[in-house]
Amino acid sequence: MNQVANGRDDGYPAEEEWKRDPAYTPVALRSHAWFGAPGKLGSHHRSKLYSEGLRESAFDGRPVIGICNTASELNPCNLHNTRLAESVRRGVLQAGGTPFVFPTISIGEPLARPTAMILRNLMAMDVEEMIRTHPLDAVVLLGGCDKTTPALVMGAVSADIPCIVVTSGPMVAGCFRGREVGAGTDLWKVAEEVRSGQRPPSDLHELERAQSRSYGHCNTMGTASTMACMVELLGLSLPGAAALGSVEAGRLALAEESGSRAVELALEDLRPSRILDGSSFRNAITGLAALSGSTNAIIHLLAIAGRAEVELSLEDFDTTSRSVPVLVDVKPAGEYLMQEMADAGGVPALVTRLSPLLDLNARTVTGKSLGDNCASAQVWNPRVIRTLDDPVAPAGSGLRVLRGNLAPDGAVIKPAAATAELGESRSRARVFDAIEDYLRAADDPDADFEPTDAIIVRGAGPVGYPGMPEIGNLPIPRSCLAQGVRDMVRITDARMSGTAFGTVVLHVSPEASVGGPLAAVRDGDPIELSLKAGVIRVDLPPQEWQARLDDLSPAAVPGGALGGGYTGLYRRTVQQAPRGADLDFLVGRRPCKIPRRSA
């Protein structure tokens, strides 16, 4: 095992220089450079920790395990992670390690405005630097809510320290007037029924309480559940970790087991760079298509791959998903909730169904392959996890990448959540430069909308909004709702909640605010959408279209200047959706060497 982690030069002294330092003693674990150092330096690192009630044996060469906790009262999805942290702590102690719980910022989807997405990269940076600057040999990452899981993974992967993920788990199923309801998905449906006059506003108020019966993340196949599944398929969590409910004793037991395994990871030096490769990400994409998971997972997987220095592009998603049918019958593209998926066998059961399409030799945090982890798994409910011969939806339905003169760098759509007849359509463009403008028009019963229109809302990408918010599931105009319309073609450079549904073209890139072609569309332009051909385009003579593109003003960011603070930094350095919307200076691995002495 290396005494000092290898990696690119980051300005710290080289290993040979450390060997000449009087404070250096040959050690196997990174934490020994803190707690095993002789003289003043070692005493400086150890002394204050005695105030926590630790004994000297805590520093006798045991692996030091960080437990990164995202619990927050501003984030009910992760509120109970402190209880999970206690279970992890037990597991670390049982395996002979020394645990330290430390906080990081917590991003809650329900409250963060303008979007939780703008904080994902900040959280990843926070996690990476907390790991880098402290005496940690491995970390257990406690996430759950949409952006917390990818942010934790991004930070740990860049630091390239042994890590294992424990997510918070899906909440208890909601119950509305005797009927099971899923978080997000059913709320969006009832909200539209209230807008159309089919229901009174009191129904929506009643549902908002009925759907939230416990702590935990959304129990539909929204972004939180999808990312938990992605992490398991990437090999960064224990088998079965994704689907277990937030209130189940099994999740506490899994957290404890993860703590014990983290000690072993430290001793084995099993870092993300030894786990994640092209096959890991292809497995995740295959699973994403089979789950008909959140389109947000595309951006997060691209960002994680960028941190892992694994080549991944939108084309990989498109090529892989074309041959993968939807097998998991969970809302919003199906009928069931995550509880039923867990009872059916969870991700390990899905792996058995997908085995002909997966690389079962991919490595995982267990030290075994994905195939070995899932060898004994069974499908207990074939209605929830279908077979390749009897899918929920045919191959290519889970996700689709679109290109054309509106999205030369790509856009995405979830066909399984769209209306089939709208997937091959020609529409009149109705264009809006801000979501607020559209919402005012949509609520005007006299506004000029037709059911066959393509609604375009732009200026909502990573730079323009800023942060690329989840506004893509645009409400249907009142005038169309009154005609019984429940879906229309909608096109945007924004994202949408993984719990949402509809014929929505998302992540249009480049975004309008940096001069992308979406900025050149005008009211009345003919828009062609073809899911079969993978095309989204404006049907105008090439010369006319090129003239419009030539007239575009560069970087027309709303509000003028990019601004200061973190938001300004974000706008100046964020990459577009096909690059994972990560900050350009955070991409890649920066393995944790031993920092320079502090005393």
Describe the protein's topology.
Layout: H1 15-20, H2 32-35, H3 39-47, E1 64-69, H4 81-94, E2 98-103, H5 117-133, E3 138-143, H6 148-159, E4 163-167, E5 174-176, E6 179-181, H7 185-195, H8 201-210, H9 223-234, H10 249-268, H11 278-291, H12 296-308, H13 314-321, H14 338-344, H15 346-354, H16 370-373, E7 400-404, E8 407-413, E9 424-432, H17 435-442, E10 453-457, H18 478-481, E11 489-492, E12 504-505, E13 526-530, E14 535-538, H19 542-551, H20 565-573
Parallel strand pairs: 1-2, 1-3, 3-4, 9-10, 10-11, 11-12
Antiparallel strand pairs: 5-6, 7-8, 9-13, 13-14
Helix pairs in contact: 4-10, 5-6, 6-12, 7-8, 9-11, 9-12, 11-12, 11-13
What does this structure look like?
Helix content is 34%, strand content 12%. Mean pLDDT is 91; it is low at 1-27 and 556-560. The strands form 4 sheets. It has a 6-stranded mixed β-sheet. It has 599 residues and is an alpha/beta fold. It has 20 helices and 14 strands. The chain folds into 3 domains: 15-172 and 214-373, Response regulator (Rossmann fold, 3-Layer(aba) Sandwich); 176-207, no CATH class; 400-560, IlvD/EDD C-terminal domain-like (Glucose Oxidase, domain 1, 3-Layer(bba) Sandwich). The protein is globular and about 75 Å long. Helix 7 runs antiparallel to helix 8 (201-210). The longest helix has 20 residues, at 249-268. Strand 3 (138-143), helix 6 (148-159) and strand 4 form a beta-alpha-beta unit. The chain has helices spanning 15-20, 32-35, 39-47, 81-94, 117-133, 148-159, 185-195, 201-210, 223-234, 249-268, 278-291, 296-308, 314-321, 338-344, 346-354, 370-373, 435-442, 478-481, 542-551, 565-573; strands at 64-69, 98-103, 138-143, 163-167, 174-176, 179-181, 400-404, 407-413, 424-432, 453-457, 489-492, 504-505, 526-530, 535-538.
